[in-house]
Amino acid sequence: MSNTGNSLDTTGSNYKWWVIIAVCWFGIGIALGLTAPDITGELLTEDLTALEELGTMLGPFQFTTAVFIFLKNVFALLFSFVFSPIILLVPILALLVNGWVLSFVSAIVVQEESFGYLLGGILPHGIIEIPALIIGEAAALSFGILAITALFSKKQRSLLLPGLKRNLRFLLIACILLIPAAIIETYLTPLFLT
Predict the structure, then answer these.
(1) Measured distance CA(64)–CA(172) in Å, rounded
(2) Across the chain, what does the average pLDDT equal?
(3) pLDDT of 7
(4) Which of 28, 75, 151, 170 is most buried, taking the most CB atoms under 10 A from its CB?
(5) Whole domain around residue 174: which residue ranges?
(6) Does residue 1 sit within a domain?
(7) How many angstroms separate the first and last alpha carbons of the chain?
(8) Domains identified in the chain, total number
């Protein structure tokens, strides 16, 4: 396949296409969360209860909360990246589930509180965290497809190491973005929710 800027290639050099693909999977997840609220509610009831308990243990305005949020998000991206060569299942599921949960929880918050409350709870940190998720998962998708194609093509095998390095740079950018996102989520977002 070509390495030109106008085509989708398996080398990962045309990274913008992987970002677009990641955004599409995330968007599908959002649509699923909005169109299947009953199924989502049944699936997430226990998870949401566990998250509420965790939230009361950690609490806002605590350094340990920021560290926990950062490490949890970085671990999720690293897990997705490492396991992406398994038919891209982990990054696709990560994008779908994150979009699904975001839309489902957003619908509940708007119904129980207000749209302004929802924006206050998501925008301050989400404006950084969601792009970090997209960037990190796009890197995982790009690396995953490169690793898969390298199994079947000698030409692609020679591109595996440069592709890995390139995608690790994007993954690093995503992880760095998660630092201010965690700080904002811990120290600024709660101010909008009081």
Answers:
(1) 22
(2) 87
(3) 39
(4) 170
(5) 15-32+61-192
(6) no
(7) 54
(8) 1
